[in-house]
Write the structure tokens for this entry.
Amino acid sequence: MGDFAITEELKEAFLSQNIEYFPIREATPEEFYEAIGRAKITNEHGAFVTQHTVNDYKEMSHLFITLDGTAGIAITPDNNIVSVFNGGEKRGVLKTLLPVAIENGGRKLDNYSSEKLSSLYELYGFNPISKVQFNELFAPDDWNYDRDGTPDIVFWIHNGDSAADVVINFGRYLVPWDSVQEFSTYDEAEKYRDQILEEIDLMEK
């Protein structure tokens, strides 16, 4: 572990756009678990982030963290981007984490749809596909209803641009919210999103 995870091509894209990037390295499952645990405590919006088990992280394809361990991102074997966290003072660290995740196979994700968080994913070429209403039965124990309300969970698919192109085209993508399909359960919304992704793959063969 410890190898730097930003390619020269991606670094050149960051530099061409005057975007500051943060050094990123691969983490062990134990390192990642501890880092995201600390971030959930120090970040007031920690409830928006799911901390999986160490065994879950052992099954991930990639676990990336900043050198100081205050921010990170994980990718599952089926190319799902999960456990995106920032517990430090690194403003703009997602501008590094998401392109790195995309470059390493990340193609889909889901999130509690706060206006700020969803607008961030739009900037990186993710398109919303499906959604499900907030269900208090499955809400995090530390959810702040007074501040955060009951947002939908939105499921996304990346548009397929390379990580370097995502950096170069940052903020220029049009997002089709009108076509987002609503479902009654999380599993149904996730399944629909994954079916759309399978159809895209079939068309590209």
